[in-house]
């Protein structure tokens, strides 16, 4: 069975990454050189899609393109447990994301409480704070 391929335009729409950005990531080595048809046009596969999704995930986790680079050079089926430096970097970012999630949950809790309680938007101030400003 023949594997589905995508033109750069289709691939950009599929991944949410612009054509220019795909070319840039290829140029700086974050993505392998795209396969080419006889007419020279790029085409992409499901494996390329997986690579882009990993790249976007790492980027959303807060990694710089420079930090992402070592991950993108690995084969997609590489066991990161065999590469302590990569594993440790991922664990560090995992902790950072978990911290961000806790902070976002606090924000969500406040918003939810405000919506369900019918309270005013302003946070309550203690009487002592109000009196101190008078």
Automatic annotation (TrEMBL):
PROSITE patterns: HTH_MERR_2. Keywords: DNA-binding, Repressor, Transcription, Transcription regulation. It comes from the Bacteria. InterPro entries: DNA-bd_dom_put_sf, MerR-type_HTH_dom, MerR_fam. Pfam families: MerR_1. Residues 5-74 form the HTH merR-type domain. GO terms for molecular function: DNA binding; DNA-binding transcription factor activity. This is MerR family transcriptional regulator. It comes from Paenibacillus hemerocallicola. The lineage of its organism: Bacteria, Bacillati, Bacillota, Bacilli, Bacillales.
């Amino acid at each position: 069975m023949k594997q589905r391929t995508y033109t750069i335009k289709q691939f950009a729409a599929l991944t949410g990454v612009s054509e220019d950005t795909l070319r840039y990531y290829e140029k700086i080595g974050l993505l392998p050189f795209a396969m080419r048809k006889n007419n020279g046009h790029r085409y992409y596969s499901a494996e390329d899609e997986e690579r882009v999704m990993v790249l976007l995930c790492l980027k959303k986790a807060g990694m710089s393109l420079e930090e992402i680079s070592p991950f993108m050079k690995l084969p997609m089926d590489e066991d990161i447990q065999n590469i302590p430096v990569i594993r440790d970097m991922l664990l560090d970012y995992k902790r950072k994301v978990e911290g961000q999630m806790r902070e976002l949950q606090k924000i969500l809790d406040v918003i939810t409480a405000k919506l369900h309680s019918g309270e005013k938007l302003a946070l309550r101030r203690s009487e002592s704070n109000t009196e101190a400003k008078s």
